[in-house]
Amino acid sequence: MDLIDVKTKELVKKYNFRFSKSLGQNFLLDDSVLEDIVNGADVNEEDFIIEIGPGVGTLTVQLMKRAKKVTCIELDNDLIPILEQELGEYQKFQLIHNDALKVDFNEIIGEEQSVKLVANLPYYVTTPIIIKLLKQGYKFKSLTIMIQKEVAERIDAEPNCKAYGALSVLVQYYCNTKIIRKVSPESFMPRPKVDSIVIRLDRLEEPRIKVKDEKLLFDIVRAGFNMRRKTLWNSTKVIGLSKENLQKAFDKSGIDPKRRAETLTLEEFAILTDSIYECK
Ligand code: SAM
């Protein structure tokens, strides 16, 4: 069966669909953005695509034109019959009615090899979704996601920038990041109040840095950025080492305890983590 483009405005009208602000519903209207997302994700016929939040299926159809299969996860009860009616007959299409924060992606992925996630994410859950997708070790090759501009800038930030924080370290620990394009509010219906960015996260085979204790790394990172203005000496106190041992750890690491977390590269976080681990 040939794929027919979904026209967002026409479907919204046809089904008298009411947008839900609380579900972060801003549907895409702009063909050039759809094309840039599909190209940016480098979708090809071997790919099994998972899309979070298909809306009325506008991006879904473009993905189906290039991919082997597209499985969508949608939470909104009102969108399920629309998607079933409009896309249900396509073999490549599968719909899961659930909350993306609750699904076990391993069950969806199964034995699939070339798995890519593509989504215009609902902005209210962007960060928890990204954290879930990365930390749970699912075998995604890449995540190509449209997110709020400021969040994309935080993900892509380098040390010594205002935007550099715990999210930058977390994402860069697992992925290479690449900004695909900026998208302005006019490209959506209804228009969001913020600018958006399409960003691609390519999962690394191994995390970028090796540490003896991953949980300790993220505890140090979180403590450091929760207390951004504090020195590393003060923020790492929460880890629970005696003063003497903490001093030993900093001496061992060669990192000045008067520095702040926002100045540390990922490699330096790894050195500090292992030094603290060894002096515990
Ligand atoms: N993909 C469509 C597009 O680009 O036009 C819609 C994108 S809209 C920004 C976000 C979509 O995510 C909506 O369809 C919304 O109902 C859905 N959604 C919101 N929260 C969700 C959740 N926790 N799990 C799955 N889908 C969710």
From TrEMBL:
Pfam families for the chain: RrnaAD
Keyword Chloroplast tagged: no
EC number(s) recorded for this UniProt protein: 2.1.1.182
Catalytic activity: adenosine(1518)/adenosine(1519) in 16S rRNA + 4 S-adenosyl-L-methionine = N(6)-dimethyladenosine(1518)/N(6)-dimethyladenosine(1519) in 16S rRNA + 4 S-adenosyl-L-homocysteine + 4 H(+)
Statement: the UniProt record of this protein carries the keyword Nucleus: no
Residue intervals of the Ribosomal RNA adenine methylase transferase N-terminal domain: 33-205
InterPro entries per the UniProt record, alphabetical: KsgA/Erm, rRNA_Ade_diMease-like_C, rRNA_Ade_Mease_Trfase_CS, rRNA_Ade_methylase_Trfase_N, rRNA_adenine_dimethylase, SAM-dependent_MTases_sf
GO molecular-function terms, A-Z: 16S rRNA (adenine(1518)-N(6)/adenine(1519)-N(6))-dimethyltransferase activity; RNA binding
Recorded GO CC terms: cytosol
Subcellular location: Cytoplasm
Keywords: Cytoplasm, Methyltransferase, RNA-binding, rRNA processing, S-adenosyl-L-methionine, Transferase
Predominant location: cytoplasm
Binding positions for S-adenosyl-L-methionine per the UniProt entry: N26, L28, G53, E74, D99, N120
PANTHER family to which the protein is assigned, alphabetical: DIMETHYLADENOSINE TRANSFERASE, DIMETHYLADENOSINE TRANSFERASE-RELATED
Protein role: Specifically dimethylates two adjacent adenosines (A1518 and A1519) in the loop of a conserved hairpin near the 3'-end of 16S rRNA in the 30S particle. May play a critical role in biogenesis of 30S subunits.
Family, per entry: Belongs to the class I-like SAM-binding methyltransferase superfamily. rRNA adenine N(6)-methyltransferase family. RsmA subfamily.
Protein name: Ribosomal RNA small subunit methyltransferase A
Native organism taxonomy: Bacteria, Bacillati, Bacillota, Clostridia, Eubacteriales
